[in-house]
Amino acid sequence: MQSSSKKQLRLNKQISIIGCGWLGLPLAKQLISNGLRVKGSTTSIEKLKRLQSVDIEPFLVQFTNERINGDIEGCLQNSEVLVLNVPPRLRKNTTTNFIKQIELLIPYIESSSIKKLVFISSTSVYADDESMPNITETTKPNPETESGKQLLIIERLLQANNNFKTTILRFAGLFGEDRHPATFLSGKTNIKNPDAPVNLVHQQDCIDIIISIIENECWNTVFNVATSPHPTKKNYYISVCKSKKLPLPEFDQHSISKGKIINSSKLVQILNYTFKTNL
Question: What pTM was estimated for this model as a whole?
C-alpha cells in the first residue's frame, strides 16, 4: 500500500500525452480520475472541444516530415512525464517519415521539463521466425515491415538520449469493446496462417500498464505486452465471430503457418501485473 506522502506526490504531477486517440484519450481520462493534470494533443481541430470537455488541456499538434505545427512547447510545458502515443500510419501514407518526425520532436523534449517518457511501440519490431517462436525482450528485433523498421530506429533514438529516461512498450495487436480484429476478418476467405498464435492486448490493460509504469517509476527498460494464452488464429477468430454473431472467416488450411508468441513474463514479474482480459 502506498504511503500518503507518495499519493500526494502523485497528485502534484502533470502528464503530457502526444496522441489522444483511441488509446490516449481513455488513458488521459483515467489519469485525471486518479487526480493528475493532463495536457493532450490531437491533430483534429474538431476534437479540441472534446478533450477540453473531459478536463484535458488540449493542444492542436500536427507532425509533418519537415516541421511540427502547433504549440508543442505548450503541450510539454511543466510536465515531468510524456506518453508518446503517435502511430506511424505508414500504410495510409507511404511518404510518411516517422523517424524524421520524432527527430524533430526530440529537441522540444530536451528543452522542456520532461524527464521521463513512455513510448508506445509495437511487437512488429520482431519477425515471424519459426526458429524463435517464444519472443522475450532479449530476442533480437528483426522487423519485416516498414513500420516495424522505423519503430525500432525510434526506440533506439529515444533510449540513447540521456536527457530523459525512456521506457518502451511493445504492444501486441490492440482490441477493445468497440474495436476487434475479428470484425475485420469476418466473412473473409482464404486467410493465411491458420495455425499461427494470436497476440493481442486489451485497451484497458494497455492503460493500466502505462499507469503502473508511471506510478512505480519503472524507467529505462523495455516491455513486451500481450495477453495470454495464445490460441491459434483459426480457432480464436472463428470463436469470436460466433460469439458476436458475425459471418465466420474461412482459412487456407493448405498454407504453412508461421508466427510468434509474445512473452510478457518480464512485465508480469516486475510490475506484479495481472492481465484483466484473457483470450
Answer: 0.93
